Write a sequence for this structure.
């Protein structure tokens, strides 16, 4: 009998895919890594990054409401999803727009790429929703910092990486962060709450080497929230 593949849901930030221009070297390494991982079904949810924030800010200045800004953001996440899906190959080429479509695509693909699904979320929030819907035990957030720090590592040199933290403690930290369309923090409150409710382990890490180590159950640099 074939082994049942574990489902893992990955949030791939827009700032990782397109920091300024598309990061070709990252995508190349990501492709190599993702196709060598054995025993997993992987859903990758892409973020909108700078482009989304730039487009959202324009609509905001023009007086458009949060809903219109969110729809704009979602379209940008889907553009990034299309880029990642085309680049990766051997995965879905039409970007799903509902949880049901993602589940269906996962039946015939080991890798499914999607962007945002509904307004009022970030791609991290959507990734948590996907993990909950698919009953995935783990949600990995790939970011451009090593993980969660006790203070902002960009401002404080002595900031320490928190390797392990409970869902409850993590939510306390997040509750102090201001949120809105185009917002930016290591994870948002909706994602944290969804993961806590459904007992989904959250991993925050940087780079493909750590992703590979994490999924091969080796030691990696990052934060585990459980
Ligand atoms: P993200 O917040 O996902 O982009 O979407 P990002 O900045 O790349 O996030 P990181 O780097 O992954 O953390 C940008 C905006 O698009 C809208 C929201 O307004 C969000 O702030 N959006 C995105 C939604 O409304 N729903 C979604 O499911 C995804």
């Amino acid at each position: 009998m074939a082994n049942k593949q574990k489902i893992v849901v990955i949030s791939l930030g827009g700032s990782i895919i397109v920091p300024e221009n598309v990061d070709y070297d990252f995508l190349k390494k990501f492709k190599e890594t993702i196709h060598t991982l054995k025993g997993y079904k992987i859903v990758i949810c892409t973020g909108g990054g700078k482009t989304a924030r730039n487009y959202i800010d324009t609509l905001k200045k023009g007086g458009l409401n949060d809903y219109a800004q969110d729809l704009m953001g979602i379209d940008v996440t889907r553009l990034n999803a299309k880029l990642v899906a085309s680049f990766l190959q051997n995965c879905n080429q039409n970007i799903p727009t509902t949880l049901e479509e993602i589940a269906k695509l996962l039946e015939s693909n080991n890798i499914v790429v999607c962007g945002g699904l509904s307004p009022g979320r970030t791609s991290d929030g959507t990734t948590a929703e996907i993990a909950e819907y698919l009953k995935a035990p783990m949600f990995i957030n790939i970011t451009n910092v090593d993980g969660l720090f006790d203070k902002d590592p960009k401002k404080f040199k002595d900031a320490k990486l928190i390797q392990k933290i409970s869902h409850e403690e993590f939510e306390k930290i997040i509750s102090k962060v201001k949120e809105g369309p185009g917002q930016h923090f290591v994870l948002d409150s909706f994602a944290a709450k969804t993961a806590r409710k459904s007992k989904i382990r959250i991993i925050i890490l940087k780079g493909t080497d750590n992703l590979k180590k994490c999924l091969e159950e080796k030691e990696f640099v990052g934060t585990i929230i459980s």
Notes: The first helix runs from residue 14 to 17.
